[in-house]
DNA-(apurinic or apyrimidinic site) lyase (Halobacterium litoreum), 295 residues
Amino acid sequence: MERGAIPVDDVPGAVDLQSTLESGQTYLWWRPDGATYETDGAYGGDAWYRTVVGDDVVEARQTEDAIEWRATTDAADLVRDLLGLRDDLREIRRAATEDDLAQAAWDAYDGLRIVRDPFFGCLISFICSAQMRVERIFAMQESLRAEYGDPIDFDGETVYGFPRPETLAEATEDDLRDLKLGYRAPYVQRTAEMVASGELTEEDVRGRAYELAREKLTGFVGVGDKVADCVLLFSLGYLEAVPLDTWMQTAIEDHYPDCDRGNYADTSRAFRERLGPYAGYTQTYLFHYLRSGGE
DNA sequence: CTCCAGGGAGCCT
DNA sequence: AGGCTCCATGGA
């Protein structure tokens, strides 16, 4: 096992690991101590979080002056990528809309960073997110790992990573329904099949202009505009992407009514112009703030 | 009991 | 393109 620490002084802007990993933007990190999601600071904010990238287990926690990590490999650069620690939060916030709601959200969770989840896990977890509560989305990913993940030895402990595309592609719809995925089961199986066969992959999306990338992603089964935006924002680093879910639609009705253009594409465009070049950042702060009871 | 959750597919016009 | 309807599951 290798270890390291990233001093917070080396990170441009504030860092808040708990807000970053428990704001509903990623379902691929969990607490190895078994704590349930959203236990609200019961660990003093210094709990370890765990994820798996490829064949490597990676853990991170926040201490007073650093983000500490331990992993099956040298993960110093990887942790910076996964947790958005390279993003200059000061510059990003300066570019954000100055309206009261957005600023209140930024104030409440300063240090929340946009994650860069591995593509396939992000894609599958957000397909699972359709009409589902945050807590249960976590539970579904846990089931997928336990049932289909490859075992990895981590300092004597066996850790199961997110399933590989080929493995999920070979699962049957009924297998996945047994994991309580409901009507998302065939979506997950067929999308895994598309990735595994090469019919449509990360490489077909990455690097393309934002709206074209979103259109490409909707080629996956179970992926519409909203889930596509989640993958663009939380995996591929398109910081302008603004997933328009039920929370954002309500926020737009109540606080940005002139951005409501009656359809996803046009409302998205108007909302992005309002929130600025890093619209996805402010969107994620708004989502977490509103869902946690603000305003 | 009903309602709803980080929506999308299929089918209709 | 835009507007239905249905889709599993579990907690409030």
